[in-house]
Amino acid sequence: MAALGVEQLPEGDVWLYELKLDGYRAVLIKDGGRVQILSRKHTDLTRDYPSIAASGRRLAPSLVTLDGEIVALDERGRPSFQSLQNRARRPHTVFFAFDVLHLEGRDLTMRTLEERRRVLPDIVSGSGLLISQDLPGTAAEVIDAVRALGLEGVVAKRRDSVYEPGKRSGAWVKFKTERQQEFVVGGYRPASNAVDALVVGYYVGKKLHFAAKVRAGFVAHTRREVFEKLRPLETKVCPFANLPNEKSSRWGGGITEEEMMQYRWVKPDLVAQIRFHEWTDDGRLRSSAFVGLRSDKIAKDVRREST
């Protein structure tokens, strides 16, 4: 079940608020002594996160399915998506459970969220897995607190909502304290076996629309790592429906026909998290910066979220 992006958090007792965790969405399944961790793309992540799998084996029930988020914590104990990507530094990763879908052979998806969350503490207790806790206060108070901590955003969920797999019904919504979303990588400008800039966009129907050239946000090692992931995807065909573009500028501009030769195009399979200041009137990102690649997102599902 997915959350719908909103520009304003809903108010009222029917809603509960949680921290928007900056990590990889995953389902953890325990079946006897066997534990499996699956991404939204159904990729098996169990071997990638052995400490989380070990915690899963310590869950009290013998048969249970949890929905949650794999999160890397920085030195201050805050979620860090960039740390999650840097496996070489072995970040401290944890699993925050926020829902239970099946328990001891019972399907709980048609129960209310409040009922499902009520049984979470007993399930998770003593295992090493964590629970995404409710945030107290009004919508305004919650947003102020999250902003003060420099965290990504808030998720609001209807207490009476059933679990709708694969749907973005509006029973769950997300509010971001800074503008940030996923975009599809369709090309890049190379520089000495590294990436100088990414070309990113989003889908409108079946067509990929250009949104930005992204140069900021990289450090030396990520420029090289992203370059290595893009090289096998290279193609001679530009995947963007609206390039070349007549206008080009430093902030929010397109790519002119003359500039097209500077770029290499790739199959639109990779998804990147991009931070930005705002959308321009002609549908470009202003002041965009790379945050990280998202292996848990499906490129064809990426749409424009912010207005």
List the helices and strands and how they pair.
Elements: E1 4-5, E2 15-19, E3 24-31, E4 34-39, H1 50-57, E5 63-73, H2 81-85, E6 92-103, E7 106-107, H3 113-118, H4 120-124, E8 130-131, H5 139-148, E9 153-158, E10 172-176, E11 180-190, E12 195-204, E13 207-214, H6 220-230, E14 234-235, E15 264-266, E16 271-275, E17 278-279, E18 285-286, E19 289-293
Number of helices: 6
Summarize the helix and strand pattern as letters.
EEEEHEHEEHHEHEEEEEHEEEEEE
What is the CATH C level class of the largest domain, in words? Alpha Beta
The overall pLDDT average reads 91
Beta-strand content bin: 25-35%
Distance between the termini: 23 Å
Work out the oligomeric state of the chains in this entry.
single chain
Number of strands: 19
CATH level-four homologous superfamily name of the largest domain: DNA ligase/mRNA capping enzyme
The second-level CATH architecture of the largest domain is 2-Layer Sandwich
Helix/strand/pairing class, anyone? alpha+beta
Kindly provide the radius of gyration, computed on alpha-carbon positions and rounded to a whole number of angstroms: 20 Å
**CATH topology type of the largest domain:** D-amino Acid Aminotransferase, Chain A, domain 1
Main beta sheet: 7 strands, antiparallel
